[in-house]
Structure formats: C-alpha cells, structure tokens
Amino acid sequence: MSADELDIDGTLDLHMFQPRDVKDLVRDYLDACLQRGILDVRIIHGKGIGVQREIVRAELARHPAVQSFGTAPDAGSWGATVVRLAHPATENSDG
C-alpha cells in the first residue's frame, strides 16, 4: 500500500505497515499533505521499543518541508509524532 491509496487527512497510522515500508510512506504522505495544503500532520507509530518512531523521526529530519516535529502531547498509549510543514509558498519565497 502506498500513500496514494490512503486517505490524506493529516493523520497517518503506521500500525498496518512493515518497518521497511515506513520511510517511503512517510515521505510520500508528507508530500501528499503539502499538495493538499495540510500543514499539521500526526503520525501514529505506536510506543513499542521505539523502532518505528526512530524511523519516522529520521525521515522527518531529512524532509525539506518539515518545520518542526515532536511527541504528540496527547499520544497516550498510541505513541504519535506531530509534524508542522512549511507552506510551499513560504518555502520558496523570493523575498
């Protein structure tokens, strides 16, 4: 399953995906959110031992449109990261 097959609503639940698919999925999902003007994204990776969380956060750190990210304040037992994306118009502003 790819990001194209998901509802792009600002929340990505990774529970149904294999860790090997997470990197590409997160990148594609963020790009799809940007295309739709969704700048606040929630990625649910679960708590576990933190493998999915680390994969997600490594990809977020590399993505050029990510302004900031951190632990969701209401993550509870789900384990989630909230992401703020830069609006494409401000990202490529000429001044």
Runs in which pLDDT lies below 50 for 5 or more consecutive residues are 91-95
Q: How many beta strands in the DSSP annotation? A: 4
Order of neighbouring strands in the sheet with most strands = 1-2-4-3
CATH-defined architecture: 2-Layer Sandwich
CATH fold label: Ribosomal Protein S8, Chain: A, domain 1
Mean pLDDT: 87
What does the overall shape look like? globular
Largest sheet: 4 strands, mixed
Q: CATH first level: which class?
A: Alpha Beta
| Terminal residue distance | 40 Å
Tally of distinct domains: 1
What structural class do the secondary elements suggest? alpha+beta
Number of helices in the DSSP assignment: 3
Helical amount: 25-40%
Estimate what percentage of residues fall within beta strands.
15-25%
Which radius of gyration do the C-alpha atoms yield?
Answer: 13 Å
Order of helices and strands: EHEHEEH
Account of the 3D structure:
The protein has 95 residues and is an alpha+beta fold. Helix content is 35%, strand content 21%. It has three helices and four strands. It has a four-stranded mixed sheet, with helices on one face.
Task: Provide a compact summary of the structure.
This protein has 95 residues and is of the alpha+beta class. It has helices spanning 19-35, 51-62, 88-91, and strands at residues 11-13, 40-44, 66-71, 80-85. It has a 4-stranded mixed beta sheet, covered by helices on one side.
List keywords for this structure.
95 residues; alpha+beta; four-stranded mixed sheet; 35% helix; disordered C terminus
